[in-house]
Amino acid sequence: MLTVEKIGGTSMSQFEDVLKNIIGEPDSQRFSFGRVFVVSAYAGVTNKLLEDKKTKAPGIYRHFVNGEDCEEALNVLLQDLLKVNERFVNIGLDYEAAKEFLGSRIQQTKSYLHSMHEIIASGYVDRENIFSAARELLASLGEAHSAFNSVNILQNRGIPARLVDLTGLRDSSQLTIDERIAKAFRGVDPFKEIVIVTGYTKGKEGIMRQFERGYSEITFSRIATHLHAEEAIIHKEFHLSSADPKIVGVEKAIPVGRTNYDVADQLADIGMEAIHPNASKPLEMAGINLRLKNTFEPDHPGTLISKDYIGPVAKIEIIAGSDKVVVVEIHDSLMVGEAGYDKQIMEMFMNYSVSYIMKATNANSISLVIWEHDLNEALMAELKGAYQTVTILPAAIVCVIGSNIAVPNILARATSSLAKNHINVNCVSQSLRQVNMQFVIDRDKYTSAIYHLNEDLCVG
Fold first, then answer.
1. Among positive and negative, which fits the CA dihedral 125, 126, 131, 134?
2. Could you tell me the CA-to-CA distances from 132 to 42, 61, 115, 138, 429 in Å, in that order?
3. Which CATH number is associated with domain 318-459?
4. What is d(CA 108, CA 106) in angstroms, rounded to the nearest whole number?
5. How far is the C-alpha of 441 from the C-alpha of 426, rounded, in Å?
6. What is the per-residue pLDDT across 388-432, written as a single tens digit (0 to 9) for each?
7. How far apart are CA 57 and CA 95, in angstroms?
8. Taking the domains of the chain in order of start, what are their residue ranges?
9. Are strands 161-164 and 194-198 parallel, antiparallel or unpaired?
10. Beta-bridge mates of residue 396
11. Residue 91 DSSP one-character state
């Protein structure tokens, strides 16, 4: 059996647990060949290189965009990464070899960024293209670091291991992502050695440009489909559970167990990614099942996501949502009976690259739920100039999701749970397919809604 497995950044930072719980020692039952591991950068490293994923605090990339010298920032990063390396010496990392590799990569990165600054200064090129190239270059550094360390540790522990470096740092070949993967895997036999692959792949289409911070899952998915893996596995520091354990408590966050790719898409749409949607589609189309596992509970089977799975009994699988949304409501008395009235609204949203999460309508109003960070003053001004009344309301969205929830009592149970806990529903949406019921509520009721819906629909 061939599996392609992705290890997340938090798990990578606890590589001793990865050795024990995922890879295994050669004489243990957990160990086997026929496994390709796609590794993320260590936790927090990509935040330092680009920007903090949650807070948006600037990283080295912002220094570059601002025209500042990145050399000192890269020197600081080097020292930070060497401190990371120190933690792995006791499990087999050759510190000096790792230091030499890291120093060489960072020196080459400095050289490329300096050249890019000079090209920008010439005024002959599109600055945005250079910025994009710098972002790609910086992103690749984190995965190169963790992948090299992983192979070095395995080899020093007597485990046959091979590094497949897809970052293409010194390779000027103009290859697509798929072409680079195909080239890199020629002559690689996963049944004779443990294969460790960088989560970043250099491609002429730009993996960061297309997929931003989901790029390592794109690499993982493309490799799984290229190798025709029997199963794709993602190892994270938590289970895919009925609700966020930070809200409902670990004991009430029930591992999902089984679901389908449609449910995974619903989660991605509200920012609770089990897997990046552009990574799940190739797996789904190739008929490759995806398993999500908790690194720290290795004997738990995790959650299996497959194409055609429908739960044998009607039940809620996941309660999820976000309190980082706003409702944009357009009210106009001329709307009633007008065919295609919302076409102009959609064109405005498209012009500002704003995608909505949910849409609810009546005779004279259209309510759209968007991410708060997509709230654009110019877009709002354009909408207010075109329509009678435009209302913007900070809000939260909670979703009741499952592969088999198309039964009459589930919607009633969900609304009853919210009502009895004094949570008003401002908007509601459910499509004919009935895999996701969406409720827009007051923002300060978000955690209460998640807790009580999980309690009443999943635990009870």
1. negative
2. 22, 10, 14, 10, 38
3. 3.30.2130.10
4. 5
5. 5
6. 999 999 999 999 999 988 877 888 999 999 999 999 999 999 888
7. 30
8. 3-237, 318-459
9. parallel
10. 441
11. G
Banded pLDDT at 274 (limits 50, 70, 90): confident
Domains 3-237 and 318-459 share a fold: no
Residue 409: the pLDDT is 84
| CATH class of the structural domain 3-237 | alpha beta
Question: Are 226 and 185 contacting, i.e. CB atoms less than 8 angstroms apart?
Answer: yes
**Largest alpha-carbon pair distance within the chain?**
75
Written as six digits, the tokens of 350 are: 């498209």
Express each pLDDT in 71-128 by its tens digit: 999 999 999 999 999 999 999 999 999 999 999 999 999 999 999 999 998 888 889 9
DSSP state string for 383-441: HHHHSSEEEEEEEEEEEEE-SB--SHHHHHHHHHHHHHTT--EEEEEE-TT-SEEEEEE
CA angle 41, 194, 162 (to 5 degrees): 70
Q: Which helix (H) or strand (E) segment is 238 a member of?
A: none
Residues counted in the chain: 460
What is the phi-psi region of residue 158: left when phi exceeds 0, alpha when psi lies from -120 to 50, beta otherwise?
A: left
Helix (H), strand (E) at residue 100: helix 95-122
| 3-state SS assignment for residue 337 | coil
Pairing status of strand 436-441 against strand 425-430: antiparallel
With bands split at pLDDT 50, 70 and 90, how would you rate the model's confidence at 349?
very high
The two beta strands, 231-236 and 3-7, are parallel
